[in-house]
Specification:
Helix 2 packs antiparallel against helix 7, helix 4 packs parallel to helix 8 and helix 8 packs antiparallel against helix 9. The radius of gyration is 25 Å and the shape is globular. It contains nine helices and 14 strands. It has a domain of 80 residues: ApbE-like superfamily (T-fold), CATH 1.10.3980.10. It has 336 residues and is of the alpha+beta class.
Length: 336
């Protein structure tokens, strides 16, 4: 072989090797932020990934459409809406999971948490309908109660056809979990999913630190979302907050009617507990637990049950109580 031929062969070999290296290279990861709307509220996803924002946004949209078609009480064609109108009795896996999980909180709270509360929230004007001036609570309570429903062979069985289900206290947190699991299926291990303030985190943020989550100051009508009472750091877990400082009104007698209705009495919960924040392994758990504690309120043993749940399940809590012109805090030791 001549020197010229050897030279050309070496060049060709280098070019082929270089092309092979380029073809095998994987895109580098970077932190991206995706913002939009889902379930009638805002969604924000931050994650460290090689996937495009467009791809992840598309997957979130698919999940949003699936959740609305299954569990939304504001979508007249959803499966849950049709179940509430007794047009069908079949359940999909989303409904089965959430209805069964809700039983756990119904039992823990001795009925203060109850997904069959919908007729009561409708009567008080929190179900997207005008409130009844003087709702007949005793009449409505006859068909409210988790013990009046059952799941048999993936079908919903009602003791009374008037019983209706509202999953707003758990569905948003569950959707956060579904989005988080979708990210993990893509190999993403550093992320934060935030849907309407219900949050699930894993790994680290773009600065290599734990994800920091702010708990809002719970004054009446606070819509700004920029008044922070406490910052909590989360690595692998979920956080949800429930409160009575946004959704409320005053009746003709000047009495404050909040959206938290006690399904055992049928009336709005009167309590000094302004907001309840829960940190748990899943956002569905945190969402339902926060609502459960608000339903129990300051007089119903919310703090005592929170301490029991921390001992039994490892859930952390941060409760803000009204105290004159200020606030009183009850929380897990690590948040003090």
């Amino acid at each position: 072989m001549t020197l010229s031929k050897l030279h050309r062969l070496l060049i060709a070999t280098i070019v082929i090797a270089t092309l092979g290296m380029v073809g095998c290279a994987t895109p580098s990861n970077e932190y991206i932020t995706i913002e939009g709307e889902t379930l009638g509220t805002f969604v924000q996803v931050k994650c460290n990934t090689s996937h495009s924002a467009t791809e992840i946004e598309s997957r979130i949209l698919e999940i949003d459409n699936e959740m609305k078609a299954s569990m939304s009480i504001f979508n007249d064609t959803s499966l849950l809406s049709r179940l509430n109108r007794n047009e069908c009795d079949s359940l999909d896996h989303h409904l089965v999971y959430n209805i069964e999980l809700a039983e756990r909180f119904y039992t823990l709270s001795d009925g203060a948490y109850d997904i069959t509360v919908k007729p009561l929230t409708d009567a008080w004007g929190f179900g997207g309908r005008t409130s009844i001036v003087q709702p007949n609570i005793d009449s409505i309570l006859q068909f409210v109660g988790y013990d009046r429903i059952a799941i048999v062979d993936n079908r919903l069985v009602k003791q009374d056809y008037r019983t209706q289900i509202d999953l707003n206290s758990i569905a948003k947190g569950y959707t956060v979990d579904v989005v988080a699991e979708e990210l993990e299926s893509l190999g993403i291990v550093d992320y934060m999913v935030n849907i309407g303030g219900e949050i699930r985190c894993r790994g680290r943020n773009g600065e290599g630190k734990l994800w920091s989550i702010g708990i809002e100051t719970p004054y009446d009508g606070n819509m700004s979302m920029d008044s922070i009472e406490k910052v909590i750091y989360v690595e692998n877990g979920a956080l949800a907050t429930s409160g009575n400082y946004r959704r409320f009104y005053y009746d003709d007698n000047g009495e404050k009617i909040t959206h938290t209705i006690d399904p055992r009495t049928g009336y709005s919960v009167a309590s000094t507990l302004l907001s309840a924040t829960v940190v748990a392994p899943t956002c569905a758990e945190a969402d339902a637990a926060a609502t459960m504690f608000m339903a129990l309120g300051s007089e119903g043993g919310a703090v005592e049950l929170a301490k029991q749940c921390e001992s039994m399940f490892g859930w952390k809590y941060y409760f803000i109580f009204a105290n004159g012109d200020g606030y009183t805090i009850e929380c897990s030791n690590e948040y003090r």
